[in-house]
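Worked Example 4.2. Consider the chain below.
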Amino acid sequence: MNKKSLVELLVLTFFLFTFLNSHTQVRTHTLSKISPSKIKIDGIITEEEIEESKIFNLDNEISPGYNIPSTYKTLGYMLYSDKFLYVGYRAFRDQVKTSVLPRDDFKMFTSGQDMVSIQIDAFGDARNWVGLVANALGSQLDASRIEPRGVGQGPDAEGWSAESNYDYETVGRVTDFGYEVEFKIPFSSISFPNSKNQKWKIRLTTRYIEKNRQGVFVESNTSRLDRDNACKLCQLDDEIIMNDIEIEKSFNLLPYISSNISGSRDNYNEKLNYSNPELNYGLGLNIDITKNVSFEATLNPDFSQVEADVTQIDVNSPTALNYPEQRPFFNRGIRSLDFSLDVFYSRSINNPVFASKVIAQPSKSKILILTAIDDDTPILVPTKYKSFSGVGSKSFNNIIRYQNVISQNAEIGLTSLYKKFNEGGFNNVIGTDGLFTFSKFWKFEYELFYNLSKESNADWIDTDEKFSNYTVNLDGESFNGSALYTTLRRDTENWSTRIRYFDISPEFRSDLGFIVENNLKRISFFQGYTNYLNKELIKRLSLSSRYELEYDYSNNYTDSKIEGYFTIASVLDSTLFYNYEYNFLNSYLDKEFRNYDNHRFTLNFKPYKFVDVISGFSFGKDIAFREEIPDLGQRLNYNLTLDFTLTDNFSIKPSINYSKLRKIQSDEYFFNGYISRLDIRYQFTSFLGVRFISEYNNFSEELFFQPLISWRPNADTIFYLGGNQNMVNEFLDYNSPHYRTNSTQLFLKFQYLIKP
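Applying the procedure from the previous section yields the following structure tokens:
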């Protein structure tokens, strides 16, 4: 055993034997069982339903106040039948902000709408939560929550992800006293221990804008929150008991049919060349083997991209860009494959002809097996400063993931990722990870991976670049490498500390992941302070700093920087963020750039009830990475998004993202351009809506249009009718731009959930 392995083993052994248990005072509630005929899900909570229900008071404000009495009264009502859990909410408000939204639209949060939710830990082990949310009109958003990793902002920083598509029914209505919402949650849609008698830990939550506090977003719960407790998933103080339920296993069939016709042209003078209409069909199967073991398979799945990605500015990026996953199959149930090292990236499986996954959740553990045969496999080769990409042919992909919850304070995992190409190459990555709590405040996490790789002999990447002693081109070389990530973190109500270490060898590659750089040893130190002031003007104040130092595998000093962060949450649901970055050294290729800084501001606020403003502005110096000889330039970026909710059903969202990098010694630009986007939506109901997206890319001088009609009565039944049109600027002369359609597509898809 080498020194590095010995040190890692000693560190892990230390944390495995130093856990301290933390406990919360749990309130137990035995729910009443009722006949389904006595319940009507119509958004009206009757007195008869109230008499049968267990009543909960959502009277504890946890944000911005800290465990103080709620200003507004909110009551929750719970009971159950053989097959369903029923949850009702009666919210007393002097104003209600809501609109009709499509399923899983995060605008419900970002626009400060009135909403209610139930959070469920069915296994009671703080492994993960199920979050089912509805606004005052019954529009749905479901999510899951795991213990967050790393340092970040937004929902992911709290461990939330809208990825599961749980099947449940909600109806809401605005009343003269506020609003009412009813939930009908099938037991078949939730994983839980395989028993007719259930104990679930739960929390009921409401969010709203409080008029008397000038537009502040308030959250109130049934339970208290200990901000000093690093384990947020441990703090569900209510437990519900439901006896003699019917264990109904899911058996779902998902047939689909889709068709599209497309046209394109290669030259300006050519007419559009239309292909013959394509007809595709396939079948999906989702079955519960037991209540905690499920199997999902798709034959000839339609993984076409319906939701148009927001184009990112990539004119100065030396590495590939990461886009979020929007395909349901690769979102459901695979949060366990979220790694700080990005060894798994679902979009590395591009166009599968077959895919399947098995998810098993026995007591204290979770197993995931995902298999896919991909027709058009993307290839990503990282190096120290650049990444290179291409598209290969057919590949076989297999992922095995095992997690074990040793205790509330300890979780370890094992992972295997395997990709084999028809041309003979393969990439095999194996690794272990863990998350340990060893006091109320301190946590340690690690990820350690090792790869065995043999390249295909193929022309998918064309470059003369090298990494270590190998070529980037795919020429049959064999190599292996390792990657290590560790974080020691401390979290209290006011303070956050992170000591983080990355180590990625030059030969490390994960063909099923998104590794865009290697040959680095990086250590960073983060210290943050947050104070929930809850004052008239300042509701929350955050100050933080981070120092980062990096070496390559030859122990050459390559990068170092320091950053400072400042955040204020204030009235009008506003958040002001400022980031200062000073680079002591930034090495790129054969050049060193020293002592330059950058400034970044973001401001999000709501000046009026019907509009949300999201804005950003940054300036300073940056490296022109894509120049033949990299150089330092003067950078300016800004972005602005205006989200207008004109009625309960109608919204318009224009946005612009501008970026330029000017040469310091002249008025010339390395690049100078913008991307503008317009998103117009009319939502007839939560299920039925129309949308039109247009986008102009000034860098490539392309226009993009996408109209879409969508109908989605449940998580899996969908109907899409829409099209894509891409137009390119063709110069007839030097002064007169002329836009002409370069490619076009009309598509239709119908997928229907069948429950035999």
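The CA atoms of residues 495 and 529 lie 5 Å apart. The chain has three helices and 44 strands. Compare this with Example 4.1 before moving on.
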